[in-house]
Write a structure and sequence with these properties.
The complex is a heterodimer of chains A (387) and B (261). Chain A has 387 residues and is α/β, with parallel strands linked by helices. In chain A, 41% of the residues lie in helices and 18% in strands. Chain A is built from 13 helices and 15 strands. In chain A, strands 3, 4, 9, 10, 13, 14 and 15 form a seven-stranded mixed beta sheet that branches. In chain A, a hairpin with a 2-residue loop joins strand 1 (8-9) and strand 2. In chain A, helix 3 crosses helix 8 and helix 8 crosses helix 9 (236-242). Chain A is globular and about 55 Å long. The mean pLDDT of chain A is 96. Chain B is α/β, with parallel strands linked by helices. Chain B contains twelve helices and eight strands. In chain B, helix 2 packs parallel to helix 12. The longest helix of chain B has 18 residues, at 241-258. At the A-B interface, strand 2, helix 1, helix 7 and strand 11 of A face helix 3, helix 5 and strand 5 of B.
């Protein structure tokens, strides 16, 4: 489904930004429409994904992780095997190609866990574009390895000390910087959030996950999965894999949010599960906020999920019932992080561990005729020391 | 309602002077005193900021002021109460608020509350033309107005449509970027923008973002008004009560003197 001409998925989306950014969004919208209609854009995108990123990413059947619960086949779409270790690179390759088509000379990004910052720094190095990354002071502290890598790749990492010092405030700062520099700078947003056309554009660039996963599942099992599970912060890895199955109503879609210390504790980041409709960072969606409309501080053990908003298409899926958004606590995610590593020999990102933890619960309700597919959105090296 | 403010200034051969204050910074009592003092000094219109956690159009000064006000637990209801309290003895007030607090309050309820508080209108910087119809209609029903923003990056035809839809006046953003006193606007393109807008609208044009010094005010003498925020807040940051008022009044007097043509 394409959003309407004003960028709405149902009642979610739109463009809630200062006037100074409208011209930049219009310019981007034209460039996106033109590029997405141009086969040479997609040829180059897929060539870079193949030769640089290492796509298609494998589909792996877990042998042991849920064997004690159920005979259901549990499949992992291995985005952790991508160059730079997460799904984020699919998006940044596409946006860097767009930046080049538009004649932009610099890239600007915000990052929480650092994976999007690393992915942007990587394409900046590859395509010869200087990169500025904005990151909250707290995230800089808890994701030191990724900060080191970004700087190694030549990016300037700017520490954001305002507000909650996490992804939300890094995003505010990136918007402000972009407002001053939109003429020559391409803002590489890291998830399916922001003002139109970002949620649509990022989805189209992450759709490759779902398209591959659908093909791989059909080729190997001759059937579609019964369930597709992915973690949701902003929601780009989830939208990416959901996109391959959204038109197959028999496939249940599960977006797993960060339950932190539990939804009743207020220390969580479950925008869809416990938030309400509002406007943040350019679009109308669900968010965590006070009754007076102030955006609330969030909590998750995983920096990549520690964000008070969520992409508008997920809000649309929630309201239409097409997808369901449960949550998993910090403790459950950490248990899955460790258990999965020991059972399967794969260290997942803490973000992905949320999806894995939920898949384990789901497995108990499924039989061998079902098929659970999880998007393993990234690898967990960055999280070592936090669990 | 707002147009009259500019007509009066024009008849006195000067620009309208529009100071911006963040309600609740450093505290509501000081904001009230500042409103009174600036009105007495000759401010034509007061822009009263509603504290918001994620102000995308604001630079460090106003963002920090908002954080301080939020630390005092000041929200939209408090700002409306303050405006009501000041409505009889001050220049007219417009609120400067981001959309989410309005959306949570309720668009219709917000418009009615503005009318009840005697507030002339609202400026909502993250509500661009395409998203603004509902709030504009609700405000109009209550006899309130909603100025809209034109940026240096706004193409001419779009600027014309914005000016047509704007209530009261057109808020001319002086430069690319956010509010703040740090970086001086580039006045040559700004004056060209003002000239171009004059051909497209008869509504008053008020220049804001980055206007901080008396020279800046003189540089935009061909506009109808100037909005000064961060420079005032920088002036009294860390002070409260009479001390804050004294510091602000000095600067305001100099800026007002510079508005004379």
């Amino acid at each position: 489904m394409k959003p309407d001409s004003r960028g709405y998925f149902g009642k979610f989306g739109g463009r809630f930004v200062p006037e100074v950014l409208i011209a930049a969004l219009d310019e981007l919208d034209s460039a996106v429409n033109e590029a997405f209609d141009d086969p040479t854009f997609w040829d180059e995108y897929h060539a870079v994904l193949r030769d640089f990123v290492g796509r298609p990413s494998p589909m792996y059947r877990c042998e042991r992780y849920v064997a004690d619960l159920s005979p259901v086949p549990l499949l992992m779409k291995r985005e952790d095997t991508n160059h730079t270790g997460a799904h984020k690179i699919n998006n940044t390759v596409g946006q860097a190609l767009l930046a080049r088509r538009m004649g932009k000379r610099r890239l600007l990004a915000e990052t929480g866990a650092g994976q999007h910052g690393v992915a942007t720094a990587t394409v900046g190095a590859k395509f010869g574009l200087p990169v500025d990354v904005y990151m909250g002071a707290r995230d800089i502290e808890r994701q030191a390895l990724n900060v080191y890598v970004m700087r190694l790749l030549g990016a300037d990492v700017h520490c954001v000390e305002s507000g909650t010092q996490t992804l939300k405030d890094a995003t505010n700062e990136a918007f402000r910087v972009w407002a001053a520099r939109a003429g020559d700078t391409f803002y590489v947003i890291g998830s399916v959030v922001g003002a139109h056309p970002y949620p649509y554009m990022v989805r189209e660039l992450q759709k490759v996950i779902g398209v591959e996963a659908r093909r791989q599942t059909l080729a190997r099992y001759g059937r579609l999965p019964s369930d597709v599970v992915a973690c949701v912060g902003g929601g780009s890895n989830a939208i990416g894999i959901f996109s391959g199955f959204v038109d197959d109503p028999q496939v249940k879609l599960w977006g797993v949010e960060a339950g932190g210390e539990g939804l009743e504790s207020e220390h969580h980041a479950a925008s869809l599960g416990a938030g309400s409709i509002g406007v943040l960072h350019g679009s109308r969606s669900y968010l965590l906020q006070s009754a007076q409309g102030q955006v609330r501080e969030t909590h998750s053990v995983s920096a990549g999920l520690d964000y008070p908003g969520v992409g508008p298409e997920h809000a649309f899926f929630k309201e239409s019932g097409r997808a369901t958004y449960p949550s998993v606590t910090d403790a459950e995610a950490i248990e899955a992080f460790k258990g999965f590593a020991r059972s399967e020999g794969i260290v997942p990102a803490l973000e992905s561990a949320h999806a894995i933890a939920f898949a384990r619960k789901l497995a108990a309700e499924r039989s061998k005729d079902d098929l659970i597919l999880v998007n393993l959105s990234g690898r967990g090296d960055k999280d070592i020391g936090r669990c | 309602m707002l147009t009259a403010v500019f007509e009066r200034a024009r008849s006195q051969r000067r620009l309208a002077f529009i100071p911006y204050l963040m309600a609740g910074d450093p505290d509501l009592a000081t904001t009230s005193q500042l409103i009174g003092a600036l009105s007495a000094q000759g401010a034509d219109l007061i822009e009263l900021g509603v504290p918001y956690s994620d102000p995308l159009a604001d630079g460090p000064t106003i963002a920090a002021a908002a954080q301080r006000a939020l630390g005092n637990r000041v929200g939209l209801s408090d700002v409306l109460a303050l405006a009501k309290q000041c409505s009889g003895n001050s220049a007219p007030i417009v609120l400067f608020t981001y959309y989410n607090p309005v959306y949570q309050f309720g668009v219709q309820r917000f418009a009615a509350a503005l009318a009840d508080a005697g507030v002339a209108g609202a400026i909502v910087p993250d509500l661009a033309l395409e998203e603004s119809a509902e709030l504009r209609a609700a405000l109009a029903e209550q006899g309130r107005e909603m100025p809209l923003l034109v940026a240096p990056s706004t193409p001419p035809e779009r600027a014309r449509r914005i000016a047509e839809a704007a209530g009261g006046f057109v808020y001319v953003v002086s430069r690319l970027g956010v509010t703040g006193a740090g970086k001086t606007p580039d006045f040559a393109p700004l004056r060209a923008q003002i000239t171009a807008l004059r051909e497209r609208t008869s509504k008053p044009l008020a220049v804001g973002f980055g206007v901080s010094r008396t020279e800046d005010v003189r540089s935009v003498a061909d506009a109808d008004g100037v909005i000064v925020g961060s420079a005032l807040i920088d002036r009294y940051a860390g002070l409260s009560g009479t001390q804050a008022v004294e510091r602000v009044v000095d600067l305001a007097a100099a800026l007002i003197a510079a508005t004379r043509r």
